[in-house]
Amino acid sequence: MSRPYSSFLTSIQGPTRRPHRLRRGHIPSWPRSTLQRSSISSLQHSCPRLPFHFETGFALFAKRQPRPFPPPFLSPPSGSFSDPLSTHHQSRDRRVFVHGQLIRGWTNGDDALYASEHFLCVNDGVGACLWSRLILHFWAGAMEDDIARARPPGTAYEPDPKRYLQTAYERTVHATSGPIDCLGTTTAAGAQLFCRGDPENAQTEAIPLLYVTNLGDSRVMVIRAKSQELIYQSTEQWHWFDCPRQLGTNSPDTPDENAIVETVELKEGDICLVMSDGVIDNLWEHEIVSIVSKSVQRWEAGEGGQASGDRSHGANGGMPFVAQELVNAAKEIATDPFAESPFMEHAIEEGLASAGGKLDDISVVAGLCRRNTFT
Fold first, then answer.
1. Which CA distances in Å does 324 have to 268, 270, 275, 284, 346?
2. How many CB atoms lie within 10 A of CB 64?
3. Predicted TM-score (pTM) of this structure
């Protein structure tokens, strides 16, 4: 028998002053971008001493306001008949916790996204953001648990992203079952930065290695902006046109059976993008490569805002600018009923009448691979 839903998920009153960018479990629906050197996650603190990290930024556009989390996330039930029916006395600054932890990431319409120094993720929810956000939260948590786990001497940590996603899926199923049955599905795309070689051995050369996990039609891309090269892109997974593989209610898909994991060797200065289908349904691959490369060039030339140091490869503040330029370009096509788009092209190939872009939530997380400088 499942534990009650409310035993997993509780809402509590937050502090008087909110942490920047966290607003009642979701973010506003207007386009925005953000620089992150670190995340609310503790992953960077528990991760092995790696020679590389992501400098990250993200940008968002939501086609509509995010739906609020259902009870008991933000509407805890009354404890007794003596409780007041009105909730005007309660603070509106209530944040959502799972197992005593603040839910990781951000919400963008039905999308959810996450960015830290070693993990990037975008999940595209169907129907609501609940499943996309919970899968993301438990995915990062499963990774942290494995990294922090004690190992026998001489046994090194090795990423196992498919198992992390399977654990996240099982925990989300458990958390959304019981007296309050919350429906929903989500695609999942994540990229974990690790390395090949022994980072503790100065005699061996460590090479940045990206573990890419994908289930559905979101996409991970690696771009070498200096040479305008597309180094890697993940493959979409479909049941049929416009029905991607997804995790959740009534879906036969599971990470163990359907998630694809690939590894990609990176170089310093490579840019990893994790994007929802709101980008790839409106921009072709060559357009994405061109936008990213030109955005980096503009950043290096002094455009895009103030830098905190050297601007080479888009460093020290360039990733939010890169992400925002991609979102702007995708949004322009998505809101144009006469534009040509990849979605329109695919629909016509399927014999369906279609014109213009596809209006959808647009989420981009960009991570610049940089070498750590240890003192």
1. 22, 18, 12, 17, 26
2. 10
3. 0.83
